[in-house]
Design goal:
alpha/beta, 7-stranded mixed β-sheet, binds zinc ion, single chain, 14 strands, 3-stranded antiparallel β-sheet
């Protein structure tokens, strides 16, 4: 098998854990359509009103025009070396970024999308990086926490992935096997979110749910995208603009108003199940965690994505994101023994992070536009035979025999693993207050 050298360690893990079954094209956030990752790159994506000589186009679907001037507060905040390291090892998948980012010795000039206009970011001299007021705090920047509440005053936004309820079919996050209970990802993620709230609050965190019901956060509906704003839109494309783009952008507005220290995006994964009324089950399970990165040339052709990526790079978001990801993934794997999901060796849309087979950088709309470190979880296979039986068993306290073994409810196992991961992260990186001296 001809595979590149860099993936050999993952191959070993993968081969030992699960055989080669994982080397399949991954069903992910955009799986039901032939489109790539987070947003379909169709001609309709480029809103005709946003392109042309006067605007800052092309822009991604429903993206506001980027405000480059706001990035000025990040002048001299990152060294050239750190910038280049982030670009080459996390944020891009090829050298084509240099088409829009002109790297000099002391600065980088970025094409803003407006003809003849470039944004100039000056690099910091090593050791002299300017401090900046970003909207979130990393664990090491927080005031000391009481020993029993390592998450004291940490602001966490939980984003239960998808919508669920009566929208589950439209968003293609629904299937039903015979007379079993239908599997609806959006309802399952909301259940996990509700279990997470008291667990994280017990550790001192301030927790907000980005969505509290199985109704959309956006006031838009598919019909809103079928008028002359998008002349060639089919019904399907309008639905995708609604649940995939408008919905996430509405959630981003909520998240960015909350100014959380981190965002948890909760999902359940699946392999292609075919006909949702006759879904195929598979004999496997896997887990991975997605951080922001791996922007493709096609994505970087959009001015808003260049801007959003710059914002994440200059604020050093990846450092906190990768540290969080590492601890949360380790806690998850310890609790569940799930093997990693491995992207294709030469994937053009995913970049492995720090050689950890569970950590992958990808450019999803949510982890790009939420202005905080984002931990995007993809555990379990909704149509994996054992996970499916655990989902059918529903939520319960304690242990029950499910699929031949005593197990906790899959939803509680999920919530407990995330809680344990965050507990460890803050215990590791945040100062803990000394106990008051006893008399
Ligand atoms: Zn999902």
């Amino acid at each position: 098998m001809a595979r590149s050298r860099s993936i050999i360690p993952f191959m070993l893990v993968g081969a030992v854990a699960t055989g080669l079954g994982l080397w399949v094209w991954h069903r992910d956030e955009a799986a039901p359509s032939p489109a790539p990752a987070s947003e379909a790159a169709t001609p309709q994506d480029r809103s005709p009103t946003k392109t042309g000589l006067s605007g800052a186009g092309p822009l991604s679907p429903l993206a506001p025009e980027p405000d480059w001037a706001k990035l000025n507060r990040w002048q001299s905040a990152i060294t050239r070396e750190d910038f280049l390291d982030a670009m080459e090892n996390v944020y891009t998948v090829s050298g084509s970024w240099r088409e829009w980012f002109h790297l000099g010795e002391n600065d980088v000039l970025v094409e803003t999308g407006v003809p003849n206009e470039r944004f100039r970011l000056r690099f910091a001299n090593p050791g002299l990086e300017r401090e900046n007021a970003r909207p979130w705090r990393g664990a090491s920047e927080m005031p000391p926490a009481p020993a029993d509440q390592p998450l004291k005053d940490v602001k966490i936004a939980i984003d239960p992935g998808h919508i669920g309820g009566s929208w589950a079919k439209i968003e293609e996050r629904w299937f039903q096997l015979g007379n079993d209970l239908p599997v609806q990802e959006g309802d399952m993620t909301l259940l996990v979110a509700r279990l997470l709230v008291p667990r994280l609050e017990a550790l001192g965190a301030e927790v907000s749910l980005v969505r509290e019901t199985n109704e959309p956060v956006t006031p838009s509906r598919p019909a809103d995208f079928m008028d002359d704003k998008v002349p060639d839109a089919t019904r399907r494309l309008a639905e995708q603009l609604f649940y995939r783009t408008a919905e996430i952008r509405a959630r981003a507005e909520k998240v960015n108003t909350l100014r959380p220290d981190l965002v948890l995006c909760l999902h359940f994964n699946a392999e292609p199940w075919g006909d949702p009324a006759k879904p195929a089950l598979v004999d496997q399970t896997h887990f991975h965690l997605i951080l922001n990165g791996a922007y493709t040339a096609e994505e970087l052709a959009n001015a808003d994505q260049r801007h959003d990526m710059m914002q994440r790079i200059v604020s050093h978001t990846h450092r906190e994101e990768a540290a969080l990801g590492e601890t949360v993934a380790a806690a998850f794997v310890e609790a569940t023994r799930m093997p990693p999901f491995l992207y294709e060796p030469n994937s053009t849309r995913a970049v492995n992070v720090n050689g950890n087979p569970y950590l992958w950088a990808r450019n999803l709309l949510a982890n790009r536009v939420y202005q905080a470190p984002v931990v995007f979880l993809e555990p379990y296979l909704m149509n994996g035979r054992e996970d499916y039986q655990r989902i059918q068993a529903g939520d319960y306290e304690g242990m029950r025999e499910v699929a031949g073994k005593p197990r906790p409810s899959i939803f509680r196992e999920y919530a407990d693993a995330v809680t344990e991961g965050l507990n460890r992260h803050y215990r590791k990186f945040r100062p803990i207050a000394a106990l008051p001296a006893e008399e």
